[in-house]
Amino acid sequence: MAVFEAKNIQKSFGKTEVLKGVSFEIEKGEVLCVIGSSGSGKTTLLRCVNFLETPDKGQFFLNGNLLFDASDKTAKTDAEIRQKRLHFGLVFQSFNLFPQYTALQNVSLAPLLLAKERPDYKENKNRIKEEILQHSSELLVKVGLSDKMGNYPCQISGGQQQRVAIARALALKPDMLCFDEPTSALDPEITVEVLSVMKELAAEDMTMLVVTHEMGFAREVSDKVIFMDDGIIAEQGNAEAVFGNPKSKRLQEFLSVMK
Amino acid sequence: MGFWEVTLSLLGGLEYTCLIFALTLVLALPLGLVIAFGSMSKFKPLAYVVKTFVWIIRGVPLMLQVIIFFYVPGFLLGTPILSRFASVIAAFVINYACYFSEIYRGGIESIPRGQYEAGQVLGMTKTQVFFKVILMQVVKRILAPMSNEVITLVKDTALARVIMIVEVIQAAQNFAGYGLMWPLFYTAVFYLAFVGILTILFGYFEKKLDYYKI
Ligand SMILES: Nc1ncnc2c1ncn2[C@@H]1O[C@H](COP(=O)(O)OP(=O)(O)O)[C@@H](O)[C@H]1O
Ligand SMILES: [Mg+2]
Fold first, then answer.
1. Cα(A225)–Cα(A35) distance, rounded to whole angstroms?
2. Cβ B124–A113 below 8 Å, yes or no?
3. Which of A82, A116, A132, B187 is 20 to 30 Å from the Cα of A18, by its Cα?
4. 3-class secondary-structure state, position A100
5. A89 and B CB contact within 8 Å
6. B135-156 and B3-39 helices cross at what angle (nearest 10)?
7. ipTM of this model?
8. Paired sense of beta strands A65-69 and A57-62, if any
9. From ligand 1's centre to the CA of A180, what distance in Å?
10. Neighbours of A91 (CB within 10 A)
11. pLDDT tens, residue by residue, A149-184
12. In chain B, what residues touch A112 (CB-CB under 8 Å)?
């Protein structure tokens, strides 16, 4: 069964229809890459999945259970939305690290705040905090930043910042991790270090939804590829089919430009 | 009239200067934040009302506001309700809260949306995002304009004398009645010392926040 399924997602901003009915599913441990030209609605799709935008139509399912239904107009409380968000992590194109916190603090902030809601927090405060800090530093080691834990974002390179952001998104143990062009703001030689962290995650069977312009990466790592064009999924399939044997003219054009 | 006698008398006035300064700061800093939230409210009528209020308060001389707070309630109700000192504090707090609110608003609006979104996506509540992520960045951004306002406040306290509060300048002016002018010039020393301390303090805060860049 799919970990996550989006069904007929539609979203307009005023009169502009940005998503015109997007459906896809993603199995546990799969990597789904989303490609497509600028303006085709990829970012909007990820923002919908992470509840930063509310779709006008469509549903999301998590492990087969309805998570979100646009036709259900009963007002959702912030707490409910927050609960749903916790199933997903999002890595932004522009990192969005918190500048006033060290790498370790960036990673541990949200788990520490969330832990306060645990019923046993008061009794086991110190142990819980210690566990979170332990887990956060393990994540930073995992993304290759064991020597940068105490550094502030302004003191490390873009590639290192993005790796902190990945560790931060992993800290809440999401069911699925989303990436929005995680390397677009980086120099080519730095892109490699971020992509290799992502490949490592893929190898560890992290479920990932990745918007990317790195065709080599998409081809190598994806279990499935979606080509978005003007708010719809114009073509989808496994990496070999999409890259090796593109059917639509739009995808052929897109791929020839991306090379 | 000796130097020490004058100094003591001016120090008496300085007490009021300091009191007005401190009370205004303590009350106007949080009130300004409330006003800032009001002016940024998504509920448009509230935002318009607050913005109009800020426009009026910033558009009328503070001296006039002090006079209005002291005389107008008494004029309307037949009996004064606020003491001289309370009128000054009320006028100063409201006036400075409005100036502060605009500084806060500028600071808050200058924080990129991605900072809010990063916090939200990590499951933080709106309150947590504001207090744990946004606020410190705002503080850093507004430190310079705030220090300007605070230094202006030191000197604005002299306006209290329009309703006969004996702050430093009024204390000095009382000597003019005896033909002594120098105490008035002497007050500059007090202001300079006051502002000097504040400058050092703000410099210290700025250094404290120097460890990160926005
Ligand atoms: N908040 C918004 N308000 C209005 N239009 C938007 C907004 N966000 C995105 N759009 C529009 O939606 C379209 C798709 O944008 P986006 O999802 O960012 O595409 P992509 O990530 O594929 O480049 C663009 O035309 C963009 O201008
Ligand atoms: Mg985009």
1. 7
2. yes
3. A82
4. coil
5. yes
6. 140
7. 0.94
8. antiparallel
9. 13
10. 28
11. 999 999 999 999 999 999 999 999 999 999 999 999
12. none
